[in-house]
Every structure is written in structure tokens, then in C-alpha cells.
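#struct-queue
[09:14] JT: dropping the first one here, sequence first, then the C-alpha cells:
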Amino acid sequence: MSAVPPPAFPPQLPVQRLQWQAEQPLQSCDDVLACEVAVALVYNGLAHVVMMATPQQLEEFARGFTLAEGIARQQADIYDIEVREAASGIEVHVELASACFAALKERRRQLAGRTGCGLCGVEQLAEVFRPLAPLPDSVRLALPALDRALQALPAQQLLSQATGCTHAAAWFSLDGSLLQVCEDVGRHVALDKLIGCRAVSGWGGGAALLTSRASYEMVQKAAAVGIEILVAVAAPTALAVQMAEQYGLTLLGFARPGRVNVYTHPQRLLGQPG
């Protein structure tokens, strides 16, 4: 049986570097760096967006991005996902339901007809504040379970251990067990990957844990797919807190074993950190 060739775009690469320490000469050392590759998402043959991402779990990334951005209304609207290597990056081809693809083309047509740049104008601002249905209030998390997840997370961040430059998004159950850890050089992409895993997993109640700050986009992605509790180890932004309050999402920040800040909807939290 012939050996399977390595992928053209691995998630990490060995390199040689020089290291300086006080009162010592420069020394050559082995190192490992996380890879960052251009990943194009292509819907029914139409190229939609190019993201820089770590080239692993790309089917999960495409699924999560498609659901979190409202391109697909539900998991059943995604018929197929195929990852194809290209000379300058990776293409992920997503086959969408025809109604979703028609809506995507209409959205692109409207965006192409606008003038200005960035988020200028009322129409663009309306795109930022996406109208989402309020989240249900069905999850109750005991804070000692969050402690258990926080303590277990570093050991499962394998790419971060090797390279020191990736974010993680994790899903943990209500007893604090880590069910999935997704890593990427991009914090948004890590969360998209986690959302993609969650969409096909059948997990019950739980919460999402981020090793990054919580920006408004992270809150919006979580709320769009029904995640009721979002925990970040760093700070949230003011807009993230505003959106979490509006969507009915429980947002926590500065999470460490034994302490956490609660910014919105504390009714889902039980007990005190252990």
C-alpha cells in the first residue's frame, strides 16, 4: 500500500530560528509555526469570500460560517461541502439549497450597487445590527462546571502548544466536560469551525468558550445559531455587551479558574466558582 502524500497546506511547519539570551551568543533552534492560508468559500460555483485560516477542519469552518452568517437558514440547507487544494490556497465548495443561493446572490447584488466604503451609510449600518430572534432561556450552567472547562482547555490546545499563535473556540457540556476544541490563527474562524462541529454533533445543553476577546461579531455568530452562553477569557467590547443584552445571550468575560465577569443575562448561571 502506497503512502498517502502530505497535504500541500499543513496546519503547522517546522522552521529554524535564532534565539538570543542575555550574555549568550545567538543560537540556532528548531521551532514550529502555525500556517495561514487563503481559503475561498465558493457557493454553487460562485466565489463569495476569501478568509485567512489555518488549513484544518475546513469543512467545519465552511459549515459554521454558512450558518452563522445566515447564508443557510438551517443545517439541511447545506447539501454538500468539498475541500479542493489550489495553487495559491484552498477552495471550499458548498452546495446550497436553491432558495438560499438565490438570497445570497440578491444580497451580493445589493452590496455591489452601494457607494462609499467600510460601513458608511444607513444600509451598511443596518447590516451590522442583524435582526435575530431572541434566544430561548433553556440552559442553566453551574459556575464550577466553567472552572472545570477552563482548567482542562490548555491541555487540548495542541496547535497553540506547538506554535503559540492560535486561538481556540471550545464547546463544553453543563458538567464542564470539553466536547470539542477548534483552533485557528483567526478567532472568528475558530468560532466558525466550532459552530460547524456543533451543527452536526447533536450535543445538548452547553456553552462556548473562547480564548480571545468577545467582539460584537462573536456575539452575533453565537446568537445566530442558538448558543445561549458565550464565555471569553479576555474582555468583551461595549458593542458586544449591547448586542448580547439585545439577543438574550449570557456573556461572560475575563474567565479564569475561580473567577469570571458576568455582563448580561445572569439568570442562566448557578452557584459560585469553585
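[09:21] JT: and here's the second one, same format:
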Amino acid sequence: MEHRKLGRHGLEVSALGLGCMGMSEFYQNAGEAEAIATIHRALDRGVTLIDTADMYGPFTNEQLVGRAIRDRRTEVLLATKFGNVRGADGSFAGIDGSPAYVRRACDASLLRLGVDVIDLYYQHRVDPKTPIEETVGAMADLVRAGKVRWLGLSEAAPATIRRASAVHPISALQSEWSLWSRDVEDDVLPTVRELGIGFVAYSPLGRGFLTGKYRKPEDLPESDRRRMFPRFQGEMFVHNLKLVEHVEELAREKGVTPAQLALAWVLHQGQDVVPIFGTTRRENLDANLGAPEVELSAEDLRRLDEVVPKGAAAGTRYPEPGMQSVNR
């Protein structure tokens, strides 16, 4: 597995990372035994970046990841996040970036994960009530205390990223980026590259849509969170499926899966970009890990840009409340 550098301060990870959210919540999962087996298979295949967050579950995903890596900690670059506040009953209580909350959240995550240090600690969403300087200042204190190694932000706007970087080095920005979510290319990507910050692309498969697995909204289980997302609904689903059909056609020509092609496209956006895909099954993991072997010529990239141009997807990334907390 190829490795890539994120930022200028020593953070190096596998070119593909594994996102673990769906192993505990939001999507249909295959159970804890298969989830842990999938994490182990990822490590066996050379994946080092394992991504979770305190809100997933809530709280239970960190515990699951902790159990999975207990005997393999030295093989893992462990990333988790704070800021999206949830109750034990799953209720959402807003966003908190206050220094006191940062400290409490970190200690709680360390306990659930069963580790002494978090490798990469992200602010999951920017808190509009707390100046970013205060939040990152508290995160920097965690680095000085030896509880965290590198700092990251998620879904932060260019001005926020600049202010945060003035307080402490930021090694990674994690935001959505895929063939059908390309708004980061306008202002965010140039900003992080100017500042020497790596980019971690979440949902590089369009929450599974770009795999071609879903042909109609009803293919999603009743409890699947994606049913709430505009891009998976009604006429927007129909429109977006046509985009996927173009991706499928190009994938067939190259003898790869649509998922491999979509991941390869993200990988080809630069050596400072690391996509993290989510899966709950070993078979899907193994298939996706073939993406780094997919070679894309300039003509391949041109054709992809032609059939799935920036802004082509119908519908917003999240329902309206969720959109209010991204790129902030």
C-alpha cells in the first residue's frame, strides 16, 4: 500500500483509509464480528488510517474500533473527532467547540478507544459560538499534554482554516469530495494546499451511490439514513443514476468496478489527498483496495470530467439542517 503525507509535520498514512461510521449506525451493517474482521483485513492489506468519531453510535463506534485494534495498535494511525454533541439516547444536542468540551471529549474518546494517545484529532464541525482560535488552542493543549499527535478540521471554510492554522499547525482537513461532490475544488482545496495541509476525502463513493449498487430509492433499507438525503430521493435520484451509468460505462471499458474507478479518480487528484471509504464487509473492502492499481490517463480524467462535471449532481449533500454546518 502506497503511503502519503498529510501536512508538513510528519503525518504519513496509507493512500486509502477506512471509515468505520457505518459499522455502528446510519447504514445497514453486517454485525460487530464482520466489522472487526473487516478492520483486521484492512490492516492486513496495509491500510493504516482508521477513522471514527465520538458521535458514531453514539459512542459505540469508538468502542468497537478500540476492541478491533487492541492488539494491533502499532499498525494503526487512529483518527477520531469531537464537536457533534449527542446524548446516550442518540439525540443531537448541537455543536460544541468550547475549550472545556474539547478536553472532556478527548478524555472520553481515549477511554472508549482504550488508547493513551489519539494520532489525528479532528474538530468534526465548526462551532459558530466559539472562536476557532479558542477551540484549536484547547486542541493544541492536548498535543502538548501528549494526548494527541496531530490536529485536523472537518468541513471548515477557508477563512476558518487560516485562523486555525495561525494558532497551531493543522495536518489534515477532512471534507466530502468525490465525483459528485466537488465544491471543495473552488476555494477550500487551494487554501489547504497553500497552507501545507493534507486533504482527507470522506464519502469518496458518494455514500455508496457511485458504486451502482442502488438503482432505486427503495433499494435502501427503511432505516437507512440516506433515505433522508436529497440526492437519494425522487427525481434527484433518477437524475443522479444517469451520472452513475456514465461512470459504469467507463469502468467497464477499463475492466474495473465503478467503485474502483471513483476511488481512483480521487487518488489522482494529488499526492496530498487521501480518500477514506466506508464499508462493513471484507468482500467490499478487498474490491475497493484495488483502486490504487487503476491507472487513469489524461484522457480518462477528461472523459470523467465530461460525463460527471462539477455541479452535475442533483440535490444537496445533506438535508438543509446538515448543510448549515458544513463549509463553516
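[09:30] RK: nice, looked through the second one.
[09:31] RK: The chain has a mean pLDDT of 97.
[09:31] JT: good to know. DSSP finds eleven helices and twelve strands in the chain.
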